[in-house]
């Protein structure tokens, strides 16, 4: 991910996208389409996600009707789809780091505009399910309030105008390619947070591409820094996963000298989708052996360019034997950094050892240490 350390540009307000940037709309849309397309004997394979991300609702509907060759008109599709979607709106979850970001900006008096390709009414319904969100936005602009949706600059120009700001003073945060194009066309500074994996190459016109909202550094843009990082780690809502240790790529100990105990990805598929890739840490429990500090990566391991998203926990302890088949329990309590690519195996290994040191030190802090005694880690 491009993470230049130099200060880029002083901005004084934020224009932020909603679907795919602050909330995981795609998850719910995918669930509905999977069932809906069955009716026509078709199977939703998620491939269309790539095309519909960032489109207006009308464009997205047209894409689906055309690509699946549905025997109905676009407005017929819409009149069936929208009631299904409305009924599920309360299930759309906020994305990791979204709540933290908008509350931080609100708390520091940074004006924020919500600028979305969806209609004003739809935006209002979606955010009504997230407590305190409406108050975080000084301005809301939907695509029905301007002549053209993104990639046209209209939505961002209107948002800047209503905030009384020059576009050059605005920071746009966007997950989609049309959204990034709209932001650049409007003359704003743009951070891209791609919502689909392995698509970074499509976002070259953005001023910065980050992996998830956890990686935003507002101070790079002249905005107040987050104050919740502790000793190079970011506390997260703890998540618990567990299962029997299975064989992985057989690469950890052999190639890196760093064994990572793999769990079956099927057992925690939802968690895998929900959590951004990156390096995390926490506690690991093995019923017969005890509780150990743990540092792990979650993602596609860019250095090896894996096809599958995996979790790779390294238990920070020297074991005299392997423990395949044993029940491994993890409580993940903090975040360290995004996954990265490296120019050599040595530099990847050195970075993982650095992560180990960060995790080992952080886990002694009371706020992280307290999870060590959680019975989840060792109960059968
Ligand atoms: P695989 O690709 O099968 O996961 P690895 O080379 O990554 O192979 O080794 C992981 C295995 O090594 C684990 O499943 C576990 O049985 C064993 N192991 C030994 N020490 C550790 C450790 N400190 N952390 C994680 N796994 C370890
Ligand atoms: N792989 C990468 O390609 N990039 C990384 O930034 C990266 N960071 C890691 C950090 C930790 C703490 C651990 C345990 C592993 C990391 N790996 C990373 C994953 C490593 O490639 C993986 O464990 C091996 O491929 C074994 O399957
Ligand atoms: Mg492994």
From TrEMBL:
GO terms for molecular function: ATP binding; FMN adenylyltransferase activity; magnesium ion binding; riboflavin kinase activity. Its EC number is 2.7.1.26. Transmembrane segments: none annotated. SUPFAM superfamilies: HAD-like, Riboflavin kinase-like. This is riboflavin kinase. Pathway: Cofactor biosynthesis; FMN biosynthesis; FMN from riboflavin (ATP route): step 1/1. Keywords: ATP-binding, Flavoprotein, FMN, Nucleotide-binding, Transferase. Residues 234-364 form the Riboflavin kinase domain. NCBIfam families: HAD-SF-IA-v1, HAD-SF-IA-v3. It comes from Arabidopsis lyrata subsp. lyrata. Gene3D superfamilies: HAD superfamily/HAD-like (3.40.50.1000), Putative phosphatase, domain 2 (1.10.150.240), Riboflavin kinase-like (2.40.30.30). It comes from the Eukaryota. GO terms for biological process: FMN biosynthetic process; riboflavin biosynthetic process. It is an enzyme of class 2 (transferase).
